[in-house]
């Protein structure tokens, strides 16, 4: 608090004023009394003094009234003021006190008005900085979804001051349930400016991607964007600042996706990086041309012109030049390839990188509803070009060569990409399940395209893929590719199951290939053998988490292979005879010469091997194993129906003292599986109907076949299972 200054001896009070303006000094008390509300003697004077102060000889500003040259005196001599204009504590004199102080009331009114006008700030209470920020909306974000609090609009006369108005109480905000927490939402982070600061920091990247800029600058800026996105912290901040969508738009405007090899490769890598988080990819795909652009790029890519594929497979200089890749582009693409392999974390170091792989890696994460019928040709073209390499590679392996050629200048021509094949098969599987946005008018065109695919030998190529992946699982020199090969087998079997479901032409196309039945039986035996080995290690507490996961995948491959075999036997009468004549050794190590048909000395019939597997599952108490043995019981019923030879072989392989007991056990397992199958089908149908009833899916359901149609199309399976149960009852009663 400011302290009062000592009154100097030179300071005097004025007692009277003559007509000529003369003043007489009067005595002053040594100790001033307590200050009270009064009019300062520096502001109160006679009309003569005001006339003199306004004379031209001594001009005074109208608002500078703190110290005029001549001042009239008050009758009250006990007046004390602080010296100087900046230290004045003058207040207005109330009229009620004017008489007691000997001051004319009219004079007080005039000077009070002057005092108020010149010292308006002294009567006002300044707002705090918090109140000013709230009133002017400094902390409010333009994208804040919450309604702004009522505020007083600023007035030019008030200059931001409240001018004595009462404060308004802040409205009470009622937040939804669960919102009363200390966590900061993205909107609050934006309000604090974090997102804006981040965008300011990376703004130079967008400036370098301007379409009018030099090509080298655009390439460097695009490469720096994907390099920064490999950093986890940068990727997190990019998500919060909506950087991903903006970067996609800027990359497209800079020419990415329009034919430039470097920019197209960077755009493919950018799409794969965004696909690491399906939520971010869903938002980006719904607001841009994401899926259409990637499908368009995939259409033009092959082994001969895929930039990153040529770099990864160590293609020669001549091959790179033939693909139209200059030396400067080779340097940029080599750096991008190392970035994808070592810093992105998308693939293992031994996996060959390609533009096709990056694109399919992103497309397989996109919601299936984002794909349309127009995207199917590009997918089939890329898939078939990769599959067509496999039959010749299998033949080379049987003759004693390596499954994949060694790295060299021309090896890229004969080396398939297993990871890209897996992604394409998963996309095709979602299309066959009816998950794509294909309208009713396009269903016929889709069927025609698939029929043409069958005529082109697609079934034989997929079987060759299953054989190749099975070789990888057994070959120790290809151990680094086992995980991708196992996933690719599962994807291949799912596609074949969808194609052969109640489809006689597709079943016959598969059975025409000599590899089909030996490959299916070999997959079943190998999956069972590997699963038993891993289960023994798990029971002995010797298995790690990876081995436990591998055991689950072995069971998946076993069930999928049994499902494909069931489709072939159910749809075609010749399927029963083909498997009945197939010979295989249950302990065959998977030699090269046994791929077309087992040549081991101890080989037996494939039905006997299946009976051995069924015996193992019939003794298990596991619920999952109960489903497997029930499925095999239905399969055995289909194999024995209208085939006495198969019936004799299977009854000899089944456990039990006599045929009647064996059939009774088989019947019980088939009945249990039928009940399970019926209950599961009904639950899936109910779940599909509930999902179809949502308002968000109404438009999609009207325009295209729903996914429930693909689920309910297998209602015939219930009839088939019940027919098998009836057949086994008759067979048991007749035995």
TrEMBL record:
Residues 184-570 form the Wings apart-like protein C-terminal domain. Residues 1-77, 137-166, 688-715 are annotated as: Disordered. It holds the Pfam family WAPL. Residues 8-20, 46-68 have a biased composition (Low complexity). It comes from the Eukaryota. Belongs to the WAPL family. PANTHER family: WINGS APART-LIKE PROTEIN HOMOLOG. This is Wings apart-like protein C-terminal domain-containing protein.
